[in-house]
Amino acid sequence: MLSYMISIKTITSASGKDLIEEFITSLKGADRQECIDTIDLLSEYGFMLSSKYIKKLTNKPKLWELRVSGKNEYRLLFTYKNQVATIVHAFTKKTTKTPQKEIALASNRLKRI
Length: 113
Known about the structure:
Elements: E1 7-10, H1 19-25, H2 29-45, E2 54-56, E3 64-69, E4 73-81, E5 84-93, H3 100-110
Parallel strand pairs: 1-5
Antiparallel strand pairs: 2-3, 3-4, 4-5
C-alpha cells in the first residue's frame, strides 16, 4: 500500500507561542475537533485529499489552503516542502474569497521559516 503520510508543523511567535494551537484551542468543542480531524486527514492523505479539503492559492506559489467545515468555516494556510506541511496561519472564513489581509499575513510568516 502506498503511503501519503506527511508531517505537520505549526509556526510559533517570536515569544515561542504556537499560533495555530492557540487558534484551535480557542474554538468551541465540535469546531475544535473538526480542525484537528482535518489536520489529521492532511497528515494521512496529503495531496490525495479532494478539493473539498485543500486548495492551492492562486498567485502564491508556496501557499495552500486547508478547508475546515464545522459550525463555521475555517481556513488553515500552509506551505509544503520535503514531506512537511507547515501551517502558518489560521482564521475563521467569513467571506466567499480568502481575504488578502489573511494571505498577506501568511506570506509574511513564510519568510520566518
